[in-house]
Write a structure and sequence with these properties.
321 residues, 7-stranded antiparallel β-sheet, binds adenosine-5'-diphosphate, binds magnesium ion
Length: 321
């Protein structure tokens, strides 16, 4: 059959429109088969845990309860603010047989201490107290007091007896603080529990530290990152099966004049870290890595962060100076 060129052009256009509509329609049907419209509901749940606000978003109603129960279990083990926690007892006694979870996180912390050449150091506890960050009675300590406390610190002061899960401090006065890593670990434990319950899609936001499990009805979870100085949004991230943690000098700090003293301390100097970074976000495969490394990069600064990143797979670091 012969058509004039004009009619042929029209036919081609109609065919293309027809094919596009057919494709669009089948894509819609495919998606609604996977995610039926009435099931496209998200449940949101929140709770105060580990000194921060946890928010869980998931298409599964049970996700919140699972996450909160696991985070609360970890808090009871690791919080220095709970007198009966394993960490509080270890800090009082100087030697304690601990659970597998507590042993694991202390061992991982020792690894991060080595990898960061001491920038990440859980034996920072007496220094955190000295600066008043534990009881919010902030002060600038004397150099003598800082020097005395630095002698109690360092990964060599912590002995791990692998055989019987005993943690021991080499000298009296050493104490540990898992504030820079416990939340990330709790996220990983919660994600493990979700997967055991066959929940594959969930976004957990633990006071700005996030784990994005799976996706939201086929779309990646989108996360907003807070600005360092004002509470405006600095950017957004799209995450799938990854954690993002932000450490900054705006989360906990005190001012004397214009000088800002923040809660992340440099174990080398005994003073709040001053690496020229005001905020850093680390994106990693696990919450534990993201948490520990965002604190580490905040202490180490931009240049050393590059060397550190090279030691890990799949690490992304975003720095605001
Ligand atoms: P946030 O608690 O706001 O999530 P971080 O994860 O960076 O922030 O952890 C900061 C906490 O870690 C401090 O409040 C303190 O308890 C502890 N800490 C401070 N300096 C260090 C350090 N150099 N290494 C390990 N832990 C630290
Ligand atoms: Mg941290």
């Amino acid at each position: 059959m012969a058509f004039s060129p004009k009619i042929r052009r029209y036919l081609v256009v109609f065919l293309i429109i027809g094919w596009s509509l057919a494709l669009f329609n089948s894509a819609l049907r495919f998606n609604s088969l996977r995610y039926p419209l009435k099931a496209k509901q998200l449940y949101r749940d929140n709770r105060l845990l580990m000194g921060t606000f946890w928010e869980v978003t998931s298409p599964n109603k049970q996700a919140g309860a699972i996450v909160f129960s696991e985070a609360s279990r970890i808090e009871q083990l690791l919080s220095k603010y709970i007198a009966t926690s394993e960490i509080s007892r270890l800090n009082r006694l100087g030697k304690l047989k601990v659970s597998a979870d507590t042993f694991y996180i202390i061992k991982k912390s020792q690894e991060f201490c080595r990898l960061t050449q001491g920038a990440f150091d859980i034996s920072v506890a007496p220094l955190v107290d000295l600066w008043g960050f534990t009881n919010q009675k902030f002060r600038v300590p004397s150099d003598d007091k800082i020097r005395a406390v630095l002698k109690l610190m360092g990964s060599d002061k912590i002995i791990l007896h692998e055989k019987d899960s005993v943690v021991e401090f080499r000298i009296p006065g050493t104490r540990i603080d898992l504030g820079a890593i416990a939340k990330g670990f709790a996220l990983d434990c919660a994600v493990k529990k979700l997967k055991e319950s066959k929940i594959d899609n969930c976004l957990i936001n633990a006071g700005g530290q996030v784990y994005a499990l799976g996706d939201k009805f086929g779309q990646t979870w989108k996360i907003a990152i807070r600005g360092a100085r004002k509470s405006e949004i600095a950017g957004t991230l799209e995450l799938k099966n990854k954690s993002a943690s932000t450490s900054g000098d705006y989360q906990q700090y005190f001012l004397i004049g214009n000088k800002r003293y923040c809660h992340i301390l440099n174990p080398k100097t005994g003073y709040p870290a001053e690496s020229g970074i005001s905020s850093v976000t680390v994106i990693a495969d696990s919450g534990l890595e993201a948490d520990a490394l965002s604190t580490s990069v905040f202490v180490l600064g931009k240049e050393k962060a590059k060397e550190l990143a090279a030691k890990f797979n799949n690490l992304e670091i975003k720095i605001t100076e």
